[in-house]
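Bench notes, afternoon.
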Amino acid sequence: MSRIPQSFIDELLTRVDVIDIVDSRVKLKKTGKNYSACCPFHNENTPSFTVSPDKQFYYCFGCGASGTALRFVMEFDGLSFPDAVEKLAAQANMQVPKETTSRAEVEREQQHNALFSHMEAAGKFFEQQLRTHPDKDKAVSYLKNRGLSGQAARFFGIGYAPPGWDGLQQTLGKTAQDIKELVSCGMLIEKEDGRTYDRFRDRIMFPIRDARGRYIAFGGRVLTNEKPKYLNSPETPIFHKNRELYGLYEARKIRQKLTRFVIVEGYMDVVALAEFGIHYAVATLGTATSEHHLRRLFKIVPEVIFCFDGDEAGRTAASRAMETVLPVLDDGVQARFLFLPEGEDPDTLVRQEGKDGFEQRLNTSMHLPEFLFDYLKRQVDFDTLDGKARLDKMAAPLIGRIPAGTLRNLMEKQLETLIGTRSAALANLKEHPPEPSRREQVPAPARQEIPAPVYEGDYREDDSGWYEEAELPADGIAPLVRRALSSLVAAPALAQSLILPDADPESEDERLLFEVLKKLQQSPQQNSIGLLIQWTGSPYQDELRTLADTPETGIRPVAGDIQSVLNRIGARIEDQRLAELEAMYSSRTPLSQEQKDEFRELQRRRKLRNRKRTGIYSRS
């Protein structure tokens, strides 16, 4: 067994250009000295994916995807590390050498590869049985009666485990080692006396595949009403059910534009929805939805919809899902809840209503804040004062689990509107926050409300900062942006009183300033250490650490100074629009009355800004 020497990988990365690699798969646009695009690894409308030719890496400020050309090929093409190296090496006309790995690494890789191989062979066996076994007709009839087409069965790799105790074992268990490995990957069960038999018998088989499409487990459904209705693979060295989702690989395989996922209960729900063109359904594997599941989904889409029965049991299950999703509800993502009519599930409902009808239900499903307050109000006598007080006490700790940001602020205000007074429970929570767990941050105080910035002039907190309104220095706004970034790294708490302009960053420093500010507003930090932890593992961690370790001398971070720079960036939008109108005016293109009013207002605002820029830039 061998592995690829690190020296070769280093040489390979010097031979290939990350811009060429990415641009051949995702169309890039030149943005300053870097390139940008909408991220191919999660859905977005505004480009947050940047590629640096100087540093030879890509990074998405939205989902955190990052790496070199090699990592991009692995993730985008769905290749293993060795295969990605081989592909890039062929492109660079290089021959891949090999070197020996440690015995432990060799044994682990051999074990996993053997299990993957057996699982894939099992998947092919089940698919073959659905076509050729003497009892195939009852399995085919079952699938047809459920409205499943052959095309859908092939796409999801659905098969049939025939009756009998050893059909799979007889086919795949040729040696004692094969038997041992089939037990290890959960396909055979070993009795105390050492005898083994097939785990899955007389069931419709749904293969579960990982992000790379490898078979890692199976779910089997009976053809009758006997129990258990579904039987899933056990935990194995290659399968951990609380980390995997059925249908996720298939949803991403078709490379459609994903904007949301709907989490359903069963495999047939996923397949039936896909049959009707709803390719964004996933199912958990016999476990409740976990925080890991949700973080994984929110890296791809901004919205997740939980689908439950409309009875009391369904609402109780929804309340557990609600508590799980609260800590991952950063601004920009949302959770919703769809409750189905009694006796219906997604499989039956989509066949009655079709794609449009089911998606209409999704579009009108309950948003999390609406569900949270509705669920709690059902548990109290809301028409009484003590009922309102109890609602306050029940809602506050749930709201406190939401990351600091706009959603949490709005829910705090909604709670106080519902109870008709200031929330004592929220006030107590802020004074005595709970100890943070490893996976949750302490709820932070609500962000300070300040008026939206107006680009007619920039506010100052005092005269001890570094920024004064002036004509830009010879090298443009770049030094100001760098100073603003340095100030924010030195004093992260200032972020809570700053407002991002509605403008597209035009340089790497502007992009980084915006993204650092976004992270701090979503998850406030009081010092540089907390900020650096947020960026650990990203390509920018060293750059930010350098700024933290070497602050500019003679400069005291002031919120007004940073906001002034942000305002100048924001004013670009107005200047660009003014330039468009001036060009139309100069070319004698007729302007509408609305355009004339806009033209005069923008001219007035630019003159006002220019009059205020009378100071001298440097103040160190």
